[in-house]
Design goal:
The protein has about 200 residues and is α+β, with helices and mostly antiparallel strands. The chain has three helices and 13 strands, in the order βββαααββββββββββ. The protein has two domains: about 30 residues, no CATH class; about 150 residues, Sandwich (Immunoglobulin-like). The chain has a four-stranded antiparallel sheet with strand order 5-6-10-9, with no helix packed on it. A four-stranded antiparallel sheet has the order 8-7-11-13. A three-stranded antiparallel sheet has the order 1-2-3, with no helix packed on it.
Length: about 200
């Protein structure tokens, strides 16, 4: 039964009304949908998509998805301009690629993030065969500078050094794969360069 604190159809209703409609709040929005019992044909294709989805959720909860990575995905959700969480943004991005048959390479575990006077350096994990690049700029949505990452065969991660930046300036950056039929990218990180 729906719990209503104001008149029916108000923004304060939540729960089902009979078997006709369901009121709920999602991301601060009042939503209403019809009451449905979802079909479950359990087809081979559906099972495959459920497997992809499970993999995405497990990846989100992987220890390599550190707090800075999750914060970067929150910024990516802002770029997308839709009301979604950082987890929603990650799963949506990954699902779009794996359901097309592309190989997703998890790009995460950013570390050794350092802002120098004229640059930003860091390491990040991604598959060796994914040819990682990094785009950077001074706004959340404008990142025109492209930097190639360097594979570190000793640490088995990618080293990134973005150079030629202005001092005492906040830069936004994200990494992505640049190989045919392989895909993977991060959310948007930020780091301020040091003062001169």
């Amino acid at each position: 039964m729906a719990k209503v604190t104001n008149p029916l159809q108000s923004s304060e209703a939540s729960g089902q009304i009979g078997k006709a409609m369901v009121h709920f709040r999602w991301k601060g929005l009042h939503c209403v949908r019809s009451y449905v019992i979802p079909a479950n044909p359990n087809t081979e294709g559906q099972a495959e998509v459920r497997g992809f989805f499970t993999d995405c959720v497990n990846a989100w909860h992987n220890a390599k998805m550190v707090a800075l990575d999750k914060d970067a995905w929150r910024r990516w959700a802002e770029v997308l301009g839709r009301p979604m969480t950082n987890m929603n943004a990650f799963i949506s991005s990954r699902m779009k690629e794996v359901t097309k048959g592309r190989t997703w390479g998890d790009t995460w575990n950013i570390s050794l993030l350092l802002g120098t006077v004229s640059g930003i350096t860091f390491t990040i994990d991604a598959p060796e065969d994914h040819a990682l690049k990094c785009e950077s700029g001074t706004s959340l949505t404008y990142r025109p500078k492209i930097t190639n990452a360097t594979w570190n065969a000793v640490d088995l991660d990618w080293d990134v050094s973005i150079t030629g930046l202005a001092s005492n300036t906040t830069y936004y950056f994200r990494c992505y794969t640049d190989v045919a039929n392989k895909y993977g990218y991060t959310g948007v990180y930020l780091k301020k360069t040091a003062s001169a």
